[in-house]
Fold this protein.
Amino acid sequence: MRLSVEELAEIRASLDGFVGLTLTDCWDACGRIFEFGEQIAFVNRNGEEVNWATRLLKSLNRFEIEGLVGGILNSDNYSDDERMLTKVAIEFLHRMNAGEFRVEAISVSELGEVKTDFASAVSLRIFGRTIGRVSDGESSDGCWILTVPGRSVLLYEAGLNAGPHVTLELAANELKTLRKDLRLMLDAQIIEFYVGSELLMKLRSHQFEFDIVSTGFDARQVRIDGRRPAWGDSDWINEFGPGICLGRVFADRTGTVSLWFGMRMIRLDAEKGWTLKSGEFEYRATSSGLVRNSC
């Protein structure tokens, strides 16, 4: 199945914004993800402060990187399980971290193959409808995912799925003010904590009381000495009783707020909605934006 003229135009319009950007990260999560442009700090679901670019290509099936001194890097010989990297993968990562891979041109074929040419005479091919094979020999129906600000496109063997991809992004002054206000919560103690259809939490410091309501949230044990957090822990709720202190707080540019209580972290998702009230201010976060009112 070939892409229509309209589908090609839609994909090309999203790819145009990659030209001039540098490949800034590459990692694996059920497919190889290539990130382009500025890395924005945020907190992931494990409570780690990491970075994420707003433009990315995710290969769900196969990819090849040509022009490296060590040979072709592809879906089969790029393995970062426990950091046991091949020599060609090490070369690729070293050159990427040195900022060598600036996009000179990017294109998509009728079969959905996306080809990116870098200024360093290296190219990245993400296969489209070629009925490729992943490394374990199983075929994959998905080809790739393209994500740009406000838009995401999924190509699979049977068709194209495109739609809006709304991500809240705070202006620099909004984020600065939010972080300043959140610092007032440090060392505040939980005096009420309830989880039902929403998270309801009240904290008290020597100056203020804070009320938090969140529709979208999760709670995790953060990494300790590099170890991954525990999964399937159904007793975490019992660790948030009265008297527990807030020891750390972080807000990122997507309006996500993470609150650390010892080894546990509660993450409030702005796109699903949260509110924060004190005697000085009130915040309301939704997928449409963040609103601050003075009290």
